[in-house]
Structure formats: C-alpha cells, structure tokens
Amino acid sequence: MSRIRLLSTASFRLAGLYLALFTASALALGAFVYFSVRHEILTDFDERIAEESDALKSAFVDGGRDRLAPIIDARGSSGAGFAYGFVASDGKPITGDLRLPRSGTAGNGWIEAQENDGEEPPESEPEVIRSLITPLADGSSLLVGDERRRSDTILTGVLAAFAWAVAATLAMGTIGGLWLSAQFLGRIDSMRQTARRLMDGDWSRRIPLSRTDDDLTALARIFNRLFDRIEKLLQANKQVSADIAHDPRKPLAGVLRRLEVARDDLSSGAGRDAIGDAISDVEGVLDTFNALLRIGQIEAGARRAAFRPLDLAEVAREVAEAFAPAAEDEGKTLVTRLDVLLPLAGDKELLAQMIANLIDNALGHTPAGVRIEVGGERTAAGIALSVSDNGPGVAPADVERSFSVFIELARRTALPEPASVSRWSR
Question: What is the pTM of this model?
C-alpha cells in the first residue's frame, strides 16, 4: 500500500515526467551522436582504402604487373593493416589474400570480399572484408580492403557506453524519484497527523519544520502561525466566556434585589428609584454585551464594511468633554492634548466607547488630585492615542493581567513616577 502511495505522489509523477523528457532528449542526442560518429568512422575507413588503392594503381602504371605483385606481397606479409588481392582478367588470383565473390566478375566499386580460404583455419569462417575493386589497364583488377569488424567494434563500444549511460540515468532517476516521493509523503503525513490531533482538540501540536527551507517548510511555518493564532483566539474565547458567565452576576444580582424592593413597595419613591437604578444597571450590562458582540463582528470581518473615515482626535474631544463634569466633581483634572488630526477609518461608536472606558478607568481607579490627560500624536508608524495619569499605576506583576477582559486589579495608594499610560496606536 505504501509503495502504491509513493508511486501516486505528485513529486514522483513530476520526477517521472522530467525523467521521461530527459531520457527522450538523451536518446535523440545519442542517436544523433551515434550516426555522426558512424558516418565519420565509415568515411575515414573508406578514404584510407581508396588512398591505398590509388598508391598501388600508380605503382602499376609505372611498372605493370611485375612491379605491383611484389609490392602487394611485401605489404601483405608486413601486416600493414590492409588486405590485398590481385586478380587476372579471367578471375584467377595472381597474388594477395582477397578474391572476387563466387558469382561475380571483375568490376569497379565496393564489394564485400572474402579472404583466401587457405589463410583461415579449417574451423573458422572466412572473414568478410569491405574492399574496393580498381580495374587496371591490362584487364586485371586490384582489390584493397580492411576488416569491417574494427569499425563495428568501435561503434558497438559507443552503443554500449550510451546504453549504460541511459540505464544509469533511468536507475538514478527512479531511485531519486522514489526518495523525493518518500520525503514528500513523510512531510505530508506529518501535516495530516498534526491536523488530526488539532481536530481532536490538542492545540499544542504543530507541524515539524524541515531543515530544508523549501516551499513545504514555508507552508508549514504559515500553518503553524495560523494554529498559534487560532489557539490564542480559542483561549481568549474561553476566558471571555468564563468572565462573562461570572462577572455580570454581580450587577444582575443587584438588579434582582432592587426589583424585589420595588415590587414590595411600588407606591413609594424608593421603589421608583430602585426600578430606575435597575434599568440603568440592565442598560449597562446590555451595553457591555453589545460591545462584545460588535468586537466579535469586527474580528470576523462582518462590520468592517461599515467603517467610515473619521478624526479620532475629534471623537476623543467629544468623549473628554462628556467626562469633564464627573472629573471635576471627583476633584480630578481632565485635560486634552489633541491638536493634530488623527484620521482613520473605523467604527465611531466602538472607538468612543473605548476612549470612554479608558477615561472611566482613570477616574475610577485613581485618588483625588490626579491629573488625567488625553493626548494624540502622529508617528512614523501611524497615529497614537493615549490616556495617561499620574496616579498609582499598575504593579509590575499585574501588567500582563491588566490586558485581560473583566479583570479588576487591587488599587494602589502611592503616587509613583512616571505616570501610568493607557495607549492605543494604529
């Protein structure tokens, strides 16, 4: 089964395709090289025989048979590399090892001649030699030839070397394709196993990264970042769900008590006040839930289409003006430093609520006499809005927890420096 999976992987198919293309091109190149080499070898083979024939013909022209015959005998016995034949006009051999074909007569041109039977051992077949017949002036014929097996041996060696090269290429390509497929399949299996573990709820699992920084490694790195993000969102969702289930119980319990008081005494002013306070508390809880719903919609992208261009500084000024009387009543100073435009596209209602929450926290968690400042600035990275005060601030050990939802830290009575700052930037 695993072998079938290896052969069916995309990497093996791609390797097989490239191997087939390479083999086809190698075969075409090899055929071209073989026929080119064959042509050169055979042409050189024939030219050497023709040159030898011309030299012997010149000797015949200078001295006739009496001069040509001794030269043939001398060259034949010296092992010059050629085979010779000197045949009379009636076909009878005068000297040399070559003879005319049994059914042929003297002529002019290339033939496949045979050596003299007397020169071969009885158990051997006569050697076939490519020969050139050159007619002479007295009617006789000169035969000069050479064994074709010499050139055939060279060409056979070329073919064998090429065949071994192609076979080695196919073997190495197949082995390489199987190895690549095994590597690819192993990494895909690790991704698949990680996905299964994640689906089973084990969000601590991550895709192992290879030492090779290739496309699969880059894809695994992106998926791991995606899983990190999803894990953080799930943890935040669990925390928010737990906080929502726990923290609203206090205001809802207060609403219940006030409504019970109002039910018992609807005719008095205390009952009406209790109902009014209960309504305010319920509206506050609903506002909290609506804000959480809007935040969830924004994170999901559902409300981004409703974003509009606005000036964050203008929004912050409006919120600060609304909180100014409350700050004055509590003996605190609320000032603004919003002299620059802070343009962005966003949800004005949520931004106003965010700024209101920051100012409300500064008012509710600082002693009398503090200075609260709402400031804005433009930076190289974009825009920034800050709500700062010179109150006691947050203990270093609680800084990380302060960013969690529905967390209320213990108040501090000292007024340390520097001032604590709540900062939002984009």
Answer: 0.41
